[in-house]
Amino acid sequence: MKRLDLLDIRDEKVILILDGAMGSLLQQYGAANDKYLWSSIANLRNPGIVKKIHREYIDAGADIITTNTFRTNPAAVKMSGKSLSIEEFVKKSVNLAIEAREERKIVIAGSNAPAEDCYQKERTLSKSELEYNHKKHIELLWESGADIIWNETQSHLDEIEIICGFCNSQKLPYVINLFFDGKMNLLSGESLSDAVELVASFDPIAVGFNCIKPKNFLNKVKPESLVNEWGFYLNCGSGDYTDESISCGINPDHYIDLIKPLLEKKPLYAGSCCGSTPAHTKAIKEYIDEVYRN
What we know:
alpha/beta; globular; 8 strands; TIM Barrel; 12 helices; 8-stranded parallel sheet
């Protein structure tokens, strides 16, 4: 299986465009949801809708589409109590993105989330359970055909070290996308700068930031001063991070106005997170085309 290299694709682009939210769109379509598996259950119950959303993001201009595997990891499946084969669950989920890509030159980013709820400060799993969860899930994402391991909303240093150490030891291309609180600390308490320093020592493709409110991110972070290759996809939802129902709180035009200072610094990739739609992806593409490709 020939995999696409993110940096090779970058050679042809000024900024790679990442897709946007999946879960909030699935909510709008009325697709299945689950307390523990979240929107990933739709990969089994509503696969046609998941594939349709992947295609909508590609048609809007995405160079990278993220598999709907934020909650196909072993810990989440075990907590759900459902008798699912993790191997089959991950394989079917990644295949939906691969099928949506067809023959187009689109990078498939295999989403690997925190083992438990991404906004949960205290972990209940042991170190061995965390190691098994991430190593198994990453292995399955790669074996299923992902082009890159896309670690998202990571905010616990122990998990971050497990993920980076494993991807590095297996020579897997990967990025780490970090989440931090209003004090620029991980949920596990360490500073953002300490987390970035640790990640950088394991040679990722890039260090990114996701699910952070735009104004909070813009006011607090100068990503280009932290790492050479970086990216972002910020929260476009209304309300709080932990709301069960997510709706758009930042329309595409407003989002572009907010992120223009970041796009001017030419990150490796740029996208949008919770509450966003293919219209946000299209707006990013149109702005990049207008500013950099004319």
